Amino acid sequence: MSASPSRPARRGFARWLGETNEITRLFLAAGQIPDLINLAGGLPEPATFPVAELAELAGRAVAEHPGDALAYPPIEGLPALRDRIAERYASERLRLTRDNVLIVSGGMQGLDLLGKVLLDPGGLVAAQAPTYLGALDAWRPRAPRYRPFRPDRNDFDAEGALAGAQFAYCVPNFSNPTGRLVGTGTRRALVAAAETTGTWLVEDDPYGALHYDGEPLPRMIELAAVPGEAPYDGPVLYLGTLSKEIAPGLRIGWVIAAPGMIRALTLAKQGSDLASSGLGQRIALDALDSGLDRKVLPGILETYRRRRDALCAALAGQLADWFDWEVPVGGMFVWAVARDPALDTDRLLAAALEARVCVTPGSVFDPEGRDRRAIRLNFTLNDEARLAEGVRRLATALRALPA
Ligand code: PMP
């Protein structure tokens, strides 16, 4: 039904909405579009989800723990799950208690809450560039100013990057979008700069477990711990999630930080969703207690390693004249940068959709939306044959672009 002509015009939406792109909605809906190969989203392979085990845990959660699963949980999360997360990350050096842990509805909520707690309107964020678009989305209502930093540059000055910012944001393991690792020396430099400049440093780590080659590097929160200090009270906030290790539909993540920061984030969560789903938390607790995360990881790693290799082989076969890329040692993405600086990947997306393949244009990872030279390609959702077909379609789209 169309609106009645007698109705007065309504007030419009807040300004930030007009500045938000809808690409994430497109990725999440892409599965519904027939014959579209989705290389865009950071989506896991559903065949890796431990369906039978989760079904059993869900049944047990409701039948045996209705108080945890069905009543309002504490805002901070179920105490036993907070303890479990504290144990998961604690070491000789990093002493954690449940007071260091807030359970959140996916890492994405952690980003939203820390924006609420740390960012004044128009405040300055030091952000690793290119920057995860979900973080840009989460903070957009506060209209932050961004100062990008590139930790992989030889001349990287960590103190200069952080000084004066309300917080700094970094994805040190297999960054979204570039798939790159921040080296140990640079991690140390960022932590030291966070201490000397008094800047909160956000370590967003959804991909840390998805390591295909080489050894894991120390977490920045571990480097920030002062031996003997208990509980941890350092400047690094660590964001973790079950989304990539078990299943994103659980919507369970966590923030690990100084107790004062956890209290502030808890107040923000109170005004956001009161608490994360008790059912999801109870399933997460039993999954971690029974070692389900450790059980499924080898299969996930094997599948994703093969797919990474297949995507990179397809790129080498089809797109080497157009793009340069590095083979990532972990994570979910290959970042391909056009050789021709004039290639506009926003326009390429339109042509790619015509050819029935979806990729993420680099501009959405730039707060200014200006960097249009790269694309982000996901290799976890599709099998080897579909990855190869997706890249073939992308080559068709590139050939169809007007010069
Ligand atoms: N941070 C980064 C860098 C991500 O890539 C993602 C997922 N795409 C998230 C946070 C949020 O993940 P979730 O809310 O599913 O835990």
Describe this protein's structure.
- The chain is of the alpha/beta class.
- It has two domains: about 20-40 and about 295-400, Aspartate Aminotransferase, domain 1, CATH 3.90.1150; about 50-290, Aspartate Aminotransferase, domain 2 (3-Layer(aba) Sandwich), CATH 3.40.640.
- About 40% of the residues lie in helices and about 15% in strands.
- The protein contains 15 helices and 13 strands.
- It has helices spanning about 15-20, 25-30, 50-65, 65-70, 80-90, 105-120, 135-140, 160, 185-195, 220-225, 260-270, 280-290, 290-320, 345-355, 385-400, and strands at about 35-40, 100-105, 125-130, 145-150, 165-170, 200-205, 235-240, 255, 325, 335-340, 355-360, 360, 375-380.
- Strands 2-8-7-6-5-3-4 form a seven-stranded mixed β-sheet, with helices on both faces. A four-stranded antiparallel β-sheet has the order 9-10-13-12, with helices on one face.
- α3 crosses α12, α6 crosses α7 (about 135-140) and α13 packs parallel to α15.
- The chain is globular and about 60 Å long.
- The model has no long low-confidence stretch (mean pLDDT about 95).
- It binds 4'-deoxy-4'-aminopyridoxal-5'-phosphate.
- 4'-deoxy-4'-aminopyridoxal-5'-phosphate (PMP) binds near residues 106, 108, 171, 176 and 248.
